[in-house]
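Async update (no meeting this week)

Hi team, since we skipped the sync, here's where things stand on the single-chain job. The sequence we agreed to prioritize is pasted below, unchanged from the tracker. I ran it this morning and attached the output directly underneath so nobody has to dig for it. Comments welcome in thread, and please keep replies under the output.
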Amino acid sequence: MKILKNSIVLALCLAALLVYLASWLPIKLPSWVVFYLNDLLCMPIVLSVCLAMVRLYKKANNLYAPITIVYGLTFFYTVYFEWVLPQINERYTGDLIDVCLYFVGATLFLVFQKRLF
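Output:
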């Protein structure tokens, strides 16, 4: 669970939470923050939580997420959130920039996972 207490992971979660809360409150944020920041933060947060849960389950703090799992989960997220959900619910829209941001976030997670965790 050390991962979830990491200051960078906490900062990412706080940033995502603030963007979400700003959408409910009369707070004006730049459009790039509203539309794209949470997409960039999504995969590092999700992957950090997944890695923490696997480490807890396996009782091994030296496990790291392999590249195939990281990009496989990212691919699943892009298909689900950018292709499936927009067809089911008009609240969601498919966007190629979002897909790229998911993969950039996953790549950042891969780059920093061994340094930070």
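Quick observations from my side:
Residues 2-116 form one domain.
The mean pLDDT is 92.
Reply here if anything looks off.
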